[in-house]
Amino acid sequence: MCLHASSSIFYIFLIIYRYADRSYRTHPRGLIIYGQATVVPSSAAGGNVSSTTILSILAKGFSNSSKSEPVPIRNLVGSGTTRDLPVANATSNVTMPRCPLIPPNLVGPVIVSKSPPSLSEMEKSFAEVKAGGIGRPADCVARHRVAIIIPFRDRPQHLQTLLYNLHPVLLRQQIDYQIFVVEQEGTEAFNRAMLMNVGYVEALKERTFDCFIFHDVDLLPEDDRNLYTCPEQPRHMSVAVDKFKYRLPYNDLFGGVSAMSREHFQLVNGFSNVFWGWGGEDDDMANRIKAHGLHISRYPANVARYKMLAHKKEKANPKRYENLKTGKKRFSTDGLANLQYELIDKRKPKLYTWLLVRLTPPQPS
Ligand SMILES: [Mn+2]
Questions:
Q1: 164 C-alpha vs ligand 1 centroid, how far in Å?
Q2: Dihedral sign, CA of 116, 198, 225, 34?
Q3: CA dist., res. 152 & res. 166, Å (int)
């Protein structure tokens, strides 16, 4: 289907245009819908590109461009507006243009692979990723500095699969990113929210990211038009997940994959630290967002799609409802404000920055 490229680019442009223009629609129940949530581009069927194909395309592109030669500037597809002035690149003396508003190499729907090659093969094939899981466009200055925070424990196979599927998407999106895997030490109940707070704090020790994406280890993006960036409002990114028949289970859902700017995350005092075990922490964040006059935004369900890797059900935290109910009175004291942890280890293998942390249960507030 030759319509594919132009229609998907048009579609992403439509999303960005609506967002930039603030002409989005407000859903009666508080949702923000960009574009038409019900329209599925007809290109979906013919537009699939496997991650291995993409890898080989990427690899070719990179091996062809020798470092001493000027890299041709890609056309600004679809913008139709003024070209940005070149920006000096801090790492070299070459002046590079800002990346186009719409990444020109997006493919739309991608075939998700649940069986990645060995880690060493992956490390070789992602030649353009730097130690610590850092990627940035080679021929333009990224518009977004994004930290991807993955709370983690006991799921190495899931992590490997996520990295295999996520890096190519992020590279095509031309963002300046770093993947942080925050692992909880010990056998206490898992505290996803606290790990994400730790990821936020530790990422900012590396450099000033302006956008944070909190990412479950078992969700694999199915469409690279689902940009890993932070729009004007906190954004819930995993709108349609195969496990839930690609339907949003409830309107205020903020779990799975979500994006918040540094300003907004700071404003709401991060996540609550009191949710040990499964459930509730994402709903508490949704409450924080609303309490601060913000709202949850979403891309259309045909773009914000994920596949979930299978795992056995986590033990739900019996106190989650109670914590949720009383959450409001802790918004200002429970979160980044009283976060306590010990960084046990930090390493930078090729495909991610790994942080091992011992969480200190928060003092009653
Ligand atoms: Mn899960």
A1: 18
A2: positive
A3: 16
Spatial separation of the C-alpha atoms in residues 237 and 284, rounded to whole Å = 17
Q: Report yes or no: 357 and 181 within 8 Å, Cβ to Cβ.
A: no
Q: What share of the chain is helix, strand, coil (3-state, %, to 5)?
A: 30, 20, 50
Which pLDDT score, from 0 to 100, does residue 95 have?
86
Residues 27-40 pLDDT 10s = 333 333 333 332 22
Do 230 and 261 contact (CB within 8 A), yes or no? Answer: yes
Residue ranges covered by each domain of the chain: 4-310+318-359
What is the distance between the alpha carbons of residues 1 and 8, in angstroms, rounded to a whole number?
A: 12
- Please give the distance, rounded to the nearest whole angstrom, from the Cα atom of residue 246 to the centre of ligand 1: 14
CATH number of 4-310+318-359: 3.90.550.10
Could you give the residue ranges of the DSSP H alpha helices within the chain?
A: 4-21, 51-64, 119-125, 156-172, 192-206, 262-267, 281-291, 320-325
Distance between terminal CA atoms of the chain? Answer: 59
3-state class of 265 per DSSP? Answer: helix
Amino acid at 234: P
Q: What is the pTM of this model?
A: 0.77
The pLDDT tens digits for 117-151 are 999 999 999 999 999 999 999 999 999 999 999 99
Ligand 1 centroid from CA 293, angstroms: 29
Q: What six digits make up the tokens of 286?
A: 């949704």
Give the Cα separation of 157 and 168 in Å (integer).
Answer: 18
> What single DSSP character describes residue 127?
T
Cα 219 to middle of ligand 1, angstroms: 7
CA of 311 from ligand 1 middle (Å) equals 7
Measure the CA–CA gap between 146 and 251, rounded to whole angstroms. Answer: 26
Ligand 1 centre distance from Cα of residue 97 (Å): 40
